[in-house]
Specification:
Structural class: mainly beta
Number of helices: 0
CATH architecture of the largest domain: Sandwich
Helix content: under 10%
CATH class of the largest domain: Mainly Beta
Strand content: over 45%
Largest sheet: 6 strands, antiparallel
Order of helices and strands: EEEEEEEEEEE
Distance between the termini: 20 Å
């Protein structure tokens, strides 16, 4: 579960430290108590922190459960495959760790999927990144789908394709968009359909949700 922490506690490197005016009220415009964090005074600072930049809302990284496929898929990823030979394998050339997810093409639809609980709202940037590598990949459609859910009901959807074919080394594939509604989970699907031949490796899957 990933929830943004809207705290006023400042990191030691924050630009808010020691640049405020001590004569101002102790509360900000929302009624939260201003924090006075110890730090190296900035030039001209008078010891109080400035409220305007006390709240830093950076994107929250949500490492999908078993995103590097180091553990068995059961309980984290669902694999939809056909023809056999697909799944988690151990390989010396894995991008991260010792394992990766391998798909063997046979012209059908094959994919992995996972639903991750994560709190978000309208305006949040949602980004899926996964490392992909291929061998003799030919034809078909390859890509990812990111679906936002609220109480199990879809409230947003983004589909992204990558056009790389043939043989290629590890490279990042990204699928990103801006949420249009409040959501409490993200469903991720990565795979292909109609690919007539070749192998596709996936590794280091990462999801991030936060303000742009």
């Amino acid at each position: 579960m990933c929830i943004r922490d809207r705290t006023h506690t400042l990191p030691q490197t924050s630009d808010a430290i020691d640049v405020g005016q001590c004569v101002l009220a102790d509360g900000d415009q929302r009624g939260y108590t201003r924090m006075d964090m110890p730090g190296v005074p900035n030039d001209g600072g008078n010891g109080c922190d400035i409220g305007a930049v006390e709240y830093l809302d950076n994107p929250s990284e949500v490492i999908l459960s078993n995103g590097s496929f180091e553990e068995p898929l059961a309980g984290t990823w669902s694999l939809i495959e056909s023809g056999g030979g697909d799944g988690r394998i151990s390989h010396a050339l894995a991008h991260s760790g010792d394992h990766l997810l391998l798909l063997r093409a046979n012209g059908t639809t094959e994919l992995i999927q996972q639903t991750a609980p994560v709190s978000g709202g309208a305006g949040d940037a949602v980004t899926l990144t996964v490392m992909v590598a291929g061998q003799n990949v030919s034809g078909g459609v390859k890509g990812a789908q990111v679906e936002l859910l609220a109480g199990g009901v879809p409230v947003g959807l983004k589909q992204c394709l990558f056009n790389q074919s043939g043989t290629f080394n590890w490279q990042p594939f990204e699928c990103s968009f801006t949420a249009g509604a409040t959501f409490d989970a993200v469903r991720v699907r990565i795979g292909w359909k109609g690919v007539s031949g070749g192998l596709l490796g996936m590794d280091s899957a990462l999801l991030s949700v936060g303000l742009p």
